[in-house]
Amino acid sequence: MADILAQAKARQCTIAIDELVYDPASRQLSKNAQEIELEPRSIELLEVFLQQTGTPIAAEDIISRVWQSNYISKNVLTNRISTLRAIFKESSPELDATKLLVTYPKKGYYLNATRVTLIDTTADLIAPSKPVQSKRMIHLVYMSLLMIAGFFIYQQSQKSPIIAPVNPLTATTRQDAHITIAVVELVLNRIHVTNSAASPYVTTIKTVLLSQLVAYPYINVLNQDDPTYFLSPLNDNEYWPGDGNTLFSDYKLNLRLDKAPTSDQLTARVELVYHSSEKQTYRGEYILSTGSLDQDIQKITDDLIDYFKLPVIASANTEQTHAFINQTLAQQLDADNPSMFQANYLARRLLLAPDLKSDQIQTWLNRIDKLFPFPSEETEIWLGLLDFRIGNYKRARERLLKGHFNNQIDNAFIYLVLSNIALKDDKPELFRYYYLKSLVSLSLVVPSKTVFEQLSREKLTSQCLGAWGVLFQDKALTADIHSWAMFANYCETAAPYLPKASAKRSQ
Asked: Residue 37 class from Cβ within 10 Å (0-12 exposed, 13-18 middle, 19+ buried)?
């Protein structure tokens, strides 16, 4: 992270942003000495980006710092972003302003560090005067530089072009800034164990691979869009949560797990198939050490990223997920400085633990809030569901709406929870809005015909959660799961706000 703003203030100089110049002392943006008028909020927004040049800043963090509030609409921020981009575009029409002020998937926004520099105007005033070089010497220098550049260009033209993955955080050329990266949609499907000795590590492998891929911004893990994702435990069965219902996806990932000849190693075979045709497109075999599963699974993630030609993003590889998973619930709750991955795993477990007391959950939520003031989108949703479980409906709504801030997760269950909160707040319009959104999102994982049939007056009135039943026919999900029990009496409460069933005509 480069705090260009602090450097400019310390050196009493200005900042060049492409063709524009920003003066921190006067807080003025200009081009060719002509001032560009900006509203105070836009100036504050620009300074936030200059304080963390090259580093993505979460939308929630930006809003908190510029507007000192967590309840500003996303539209307010995006409008300000558009204003700055319009100014950048006007100053440099030949360049793409979205590659200067960059939207980084699942992470927020950042100012491209390769196009921001300091203008140290004081150096010329302090330095002693030097004799002026002759025009002949200047011409010789220019000619030498042109010859070197020409030779270099000629050498490069004789080579085949190579397009390599680019990390937008470390890109160093303007050409890099113009690369557009497509997001890959992937479903984590099945993990098949061919040797029972490998079974104790299934939960860890599922947890780690899911966590790494969810955290990577250029792969959209569509498991998150399946309502059962938030209602299923992470355990040693053969399927990942939210695996079996997604109707639309680019790829599915399967994994075969076996015991290696060495006692402390496993063999993992990764198979990637096209979702529509079931044709295999990638296969890789890996040796996983039981003592360093997180690091070895990172190799699988890195190879998938390389296969899709996506940017490489450095990972610390400091997790010890297997040791954490094998602790008791009490030990997990008391763990020192849990990571965000561990917090997600534990939140899922807490949500499905019917005997846990509300005050225990609240204590843990308070602790996580202090550890992660700006949690990831998925973490925010898990925390919101826990707030919903213990009756903190207002806080639950705030978290769930923040979790949807970047619209990366479109989950019908989350909309259903929001509709339930609206019922408890006696807000019929909000209830209808979120109820309908839940049905629309449900069509991603349930045949649209089923959803359309649910919209008849008779079915809405008598069985308002009827379309959801399809999801649980072939799942190990039962009515006594605590998350689902939260919806006891949901349809009875919603009845006054639903269309009335038409009376049957007498024959």
From this structure: exposed
Helix (H) or strand (E) holding 147: helix 135-157
Residue 111 phi, psi dihedral angles, 5° rounding: -95, 125
Structure tokens at 323: 């040791």
Q: How many H-runs (helices) and E-runs (strands) does the chain carry?
A: 20, 12
Residues 375-430 have pLDDT tens digits of 888 899 999 999 999 999 999 998 998 765 445 678 889 999 999 999 999 999 99
Burial of residue 486 (CB within 10 Å: 0-12, 13-18, 19+) is: middle
Q: In what order do the strands lie in the sheet with 34-36?
A: 34-36, 28-31, 20-23, 14-17, 116-119
In this structure, what are the phi and psi dihedrals at residue 252, rounded to the nearest 5 degrees? -120, 145
Burial 377-414 (b: 16+ CB within 10 A, else e): bbbbbbbbbbbbbbebbebbbbbbbbbbbbebbebbbb
CA–CA dist 152, 287 (Å, integer): 44
pLDDT value of position 178: 36
- Pair of tokens at residue 167: 């990390």
